[in-house]
Amino acid sequence: MSTLPLPVLQPKSQGGAGSDIWSRIATLLRSRAKARSTYAVADQVVYSFGNMVVAALMSRHCAPQQFGIYILTQRTMDVLIQLSNVFLWAPFTFNLPGTPTTRRAGYQGSTLGLQLVLCVLFSLLLGAATCLPVVSSRAEFYGTFAPLVWAGSGILFREFTRRMYFAHLRLAEAFWTDLATVTLQIAGVYLLYRAHHLDVSHTLYVLCAGSVAVSLWWIFKEWPGWQFRLEDAHGDMRNNLRLGRWFLGSNMIFMVTSQCNPWVLSGVMGSSAVGAYSVCESVVNIPRVALTSMQNIMAPMVARAHNDGGRAGVRSVVRRLDRALLLGSIVFAVAIWGVGPLVARLIFRTVPGDVRTVLVLLALNLIAYAATLAQSYGLTALGRADTTLYANGLGLLAQAAACVLLVRSFHIPGAAAAMLIGSLLTLCAREYFFRREVQAA
After folding, report:
1. Residue 181 · residue 210 · CB < 8 Å
2. What residues have CB less than 8 Å from 105, skipping those under 6 apart?
3. Residue 144: CB partners within 8 Å, gap ≥ 6?
4. CB 158: neighbour CB atoms within 10 A?
5. Structural domain of residue 114, as residue ranges?
6. What is the pTM of this model?
7. Cα distance between residue 429 and residue 393, in whole Å
8. 214 band by pLDDT with thresholds 50, 70 and 90
């Protein structure tokens, strides 16, 4: 005689539905915390926070002239970073997905070897710059650029290690190494302040020391997986230059665009105006970390989309990035308009009298810059990196002409307005070129 199975009694949940909801929330938060986009934003937050803290210490505890000179040294480093980007990092990121697996270790080794060569060349370039009459005749510049010769290579090589992590989408490792670098650098600069040795030259050496320490750890960890063959380096360099020739033009134009305002302000109003403008620019750069974090992963994302889905894949990922960047930049611009002046006073203490006007113009420029940023990466993946050069060139011409005219009449707000004019023209040109390419047969 068969018997019916007895029902199995389940223990009653202690927390009920509420505990289940909190468990799901916790699981979601854990998954988002480990997402690539989260690490990308966190990495850029740490990187930008370190730069802001060092700039704030220089602004608070050094003379305005010293602070302005420090900003100019960072602009000089931007030039070297952009040169390495166009010849190495950006081509590497776009070429890597299509490189056969058996060649990737050699390609990475060639890129590392070329980076070491560029570090030596840039040191020689900076050394030659110290002999120029405009530098050697002014003691404050000579005392700054001489240590920059030695510090530049260490800082530049650390930037190379960051970009290699981004190219492989190893964003968690990029975050932790950046956190270590920034911690060492801030601690060193703070010790300089406590020892009453806080100046531009000592700060450059401290920034270099933090960069070199983390770079040595990176070399020890990554070197076994890389291969270098001299006969392959020449071919890999030529392969990089197929894209690099266009990156050189477009990125150098973009770099000159960012350099234009500080140098025009320095020539018309002096180095103190550079520091005042930098205060406003630093506030806008606080939310800009999210935009920059997206840029760090945008190139590998678009390159992989093109490798997997062709023109349709590029169009899909670019439009998705466009929506996120535009909405995010609008939210940030509203926040800058509302609390930007308060944040500037809190961080830097001394702000220009027309700080709100400058911040609003720079916030609008942030929107214009972000609205079609993904298009430039899409055009490169589609083999039309030259069109990005043309779009950036149009924007630079507009900004330079407007800057010369507006700074003399409106001073610092005029420089911010000139940048907005250039960004709007670049936006229109970039959107036109991208639409034309994705609609091509």
Report:
1. yes
2. 225, 226, 227
3. 69, 72, 73, 200, 201, 204
4. 22
5. 35-438
6. 0.66
7. 10
8. very high
- Residues listed for the chain: 441
Q: Strand, coil or helix: what is 251?
A: helix
275, 118 Cβ separation under 8 angstroms: no
Please give the backbone phi and psi of residue 99, each rounded to the nearest 5 degrees, phi first: -80, 130
Contact 300, 167 (CB under 8 A): yes
The verdict on residue 209 lying in a domain is yes
User: Over 60: is that where the pLDDT of 234 sits?
Assistant: yes
How far is the first Cα of the chain from the last one, in angstroms, to the nearest whole number?
76
pLDDT-derived band at 441 (thresholds 50, 70, 90) equals very low
Residue 16 covered by a domain: no
Tokens of 233: 């380096």
| 20 domain-assigned | no
Q: Tell me: pLDDT of 379 over 80.
A: yes
Total domain count for the chain?
A: 1
Residues 318, 384: contact at Cβ < 8 Å?
no
Q: What is the pLDDT of residues 9-32, one digit of tens each?
A: 445 445 555 556 555 544 544 554
DSSP annotation of 5: P
**Contact yes or no for 34/241 (Cβ under 8 A):** no
Give me the pLDDT at residue 32, please. 47
Structure-block tokens of residue 186: 């801030």
Token pair for 139: 């003691």
Residue 382: partners with Cβ closer than 8 Å, 6 or more residues away: 306, 311, 314, 437, 438
Sign of the dihedral through C-alpha 8, 13, 18, 22: negative
* pLDDT tens-digit map of 72-85: 788 778 878 878 88
Residue with tokens 């450059």: 204
Residue 193 CA to residue 213 CA, distance in Å, equals 21
Could you give the CA distance from residue 111 to residue 220 in angstroms, rounded to a whole number? 17
Return the half-sphere exposure (C-beta side, CA atoms, 13 A cut-off) of residue 47: 26
Report the pLDDT averaged over residues 280-306.
80
User: How many Cβ atoms are within 10 Å of 43's Cβ, its own excluded?
Assistant: 27
Question: Hunting for tokens 């630093």 — which residue is that?
Answer: 282
pLDDT band at 183 (very low <50, low <70, confident <90, very high): very high
Considering the chain, what is the average pLDDT of its residues?
A: 80
Measured CA to CA in angstroms, residue 147 lies from 49, 119, 189, 224, 289 at distances of 24, 15, 16, 33, 29
On whether residue 11 sits in a domain, the answer given is: no
Least confident of 312-326, 339-353, 421-435: 339-353
